[in-house]
Amino acid sequence: MPLYTETSNSLRVISSSPSNIFEIYTLNIILSFDYYIITLLLPLYYSTSFGLSDLHAGYIFGCTGLFLSILSFTIGHIVPEIGCKRGLVLSTLSVFSGFMILSMCRSFYISLFAILGLICFGIALSGPLIGIGVKRYSDSTNRSTSVSILMMGTYLAGIIAGTYVDIVWNFFEDKAVIFDIIFSTAAGASGLGFFIAVTLKSNEKLEGNQLTSPNSVIFTKKFWKFLIVIGFVTLLHSVCFEQLDATFPKFITRVIGDKAHFGIFFGIYSANMLIGALAFTPLTFKLSSYTLIMLGGSLGALASFMLFLGSTNLNFIAFALLLSSGECILVPRTLDYTMKVASEGEEGVYLAVCNSPYYFGMILTGIISGKLLENYCPEYGDKSCFFIWKVVSVCAICVVMLMGIFKYCISHNESQAETGDSREIRN
């Protein structure tokens, strides 16, 4: 109970924060909805609309991650120059333009430009900006709770996206119409985000006034140790958690058929993350963020093994619940860990790197997903679909073991970071 009391006290402090932080939370929900839409539908979109094979659709999924990664690293250097408000306006406008093009065009190459150019740019730009906004309006006493609330918004967007996709997918027969409707909705959401970003009040606290040169950040021992940690997190995302988007929809439709309600399981997954993000927050008062990252990865490995056991709804639900429990621990605590490592003025670079597991991991995810589906779960021919999840589970366990072995070499002194954060002003 004392742990939950500390969380409750943090919530009271956050509730009295300036309105800016709640507008940032809202923008996070909108842009997360757009991100979930594109990652959930991307392989199906290219296989259905353009007749691409599983492997080639997987390559495009991987290329999306590559572009997001490159843009994320690049944007980390320019975020301090453009500021939070201008950056969020540019981000929402870019995502809006990309989805509008997708909803109207039937060209393969134009669709690639819309996704790899406009949408990827907007999403990659928004990550560091939203993270900076949350850090500037929190301190070490309520930061874990602030991050958990931020991630709850992300997971709420996942619930909405998964449920909406499932309803539209099963209501309409024409797949082209389905994609047009969903992409138009995503464009409308980012249009609303653009309006919120334009009306966002800019002030010194949000924009910051002490910026550190990127070169002085990346040539430090602290940064490279942090980069190794993020490398492990990237592996966990690519071999385990991202398979929900890249592999699970095709896996379940080939095991059950066209009426497989993969969107419902995605909704269960997101609903549990929404609850767990705050429910697991009290653990941060007793365990380090690094230890909790390892715990999240272990739950993800166990979740994948559940699918190896069979195609019952109970196994699918167990998979969704365990995987979401792992991710709602791993993702907020990775962001929490990043904020503890990054000093004031360094957030742009560190938060850009922190976002790379979701993007860079998509490269490996796309390749792994395409290979596993074509070898073990092809659309036609002999299938051994459940073996896919045994491979995923073993790979995830290996990554967690490596994190445990190298923990004392690469983990950051989090208690020292929290002491340094005590200088920050609470508004």
Automatic annotation (TrEMBL):
Matching Gene3D superfamilies, A to Z?
A: MFS general substrate transporter like domains (1.20.1250.20)
Q: Which GO CC annotations does the UniProt entry carry?
A: plasma membrane
UniProt KW DNA-binding keyword: no
UniProt xrefs under SUPFAM superfamilies: MFS general substrate transporter
Membrane topology term: Multi-pass membrane protein
Any single GO molecular-function term of the entry would be: transmembrane transporter activity
Q: Where does the protein end up?
A: Cell membrane
Keywords of the record, alphabetical order, are: Cell membrane, Membrane, Transmembrane, Transmembrane helix, Transport
- Where are its TM segments located? 21-46, 58-80, 110-134, 146-165, 177-202, 223-244, 264-285, 347-367, 387-406
Does Transmembrane show up as a keyword for this record? yes
User: May I ask which residue range the UniProt record assigns to the signal sequence?
Assistant: none
Give the protein name, as stated in the record: Major facilitator superfamily (MFS) profile domain-containing protein
